[in-house]
């Protein structure tokens, strides 16, 4: 593992981004540094969107879909046939 060369706040951001699927340590470091460089355009809006998502998004108890309501929009749709399952 690379030696920490930034402050603990930046290293924590890199570590958390590195937990995302498809982001290794180098990609996470590049993403974190880009977010910091473009703080107003990227970091602040992303942090706000993540806060809102954490507060409002839930998992539907019926189907496991993610939505802002439970049951989700799909399960509440009265035009859908709940007895039909489509396998793709």
From TrEMBL:
Signal peptide: none annotated. The lineage of its organism: Bacteria, Pseudomonadati, Bacteroidota, Flavobacteriia, Flavobacteriales. PANTHER family: RECOMBINATION PROTEIN RECR (PTHR30446). It comes from the Bacteria. InterPro entries: DNA_Rcmb_RecR (IPR000093), Rcmb_RecR (IPR023627), Rcmb_RecR_Znf (IPR015967). Residues 60-81 form the RecR protein domain. GO terms for molecular function: DNA binding; metal ion binding. GO terms for biological process: DNA recombination; DNA repair. This is Recombination protein RecR.
């Amino acid at each position: 593992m690379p030696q920490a060369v930034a402050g603990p706040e930046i290293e924590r951001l890199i570590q958390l981004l590195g937990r995302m699927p498809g982001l290794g340590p180098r990609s996470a470091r590049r993403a974190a540094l880009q977010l910091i460089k473009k703080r107003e355009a990227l970091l602040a809006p992303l942090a706000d969107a993540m806060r809102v998502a954490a507060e409002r998004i839930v998992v539907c108890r019926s189907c496991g879909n993610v939505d802002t309501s439970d049951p989700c929009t799909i399960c509440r749709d009265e035009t859908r046939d709940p007895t039909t399952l489509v396998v793709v």
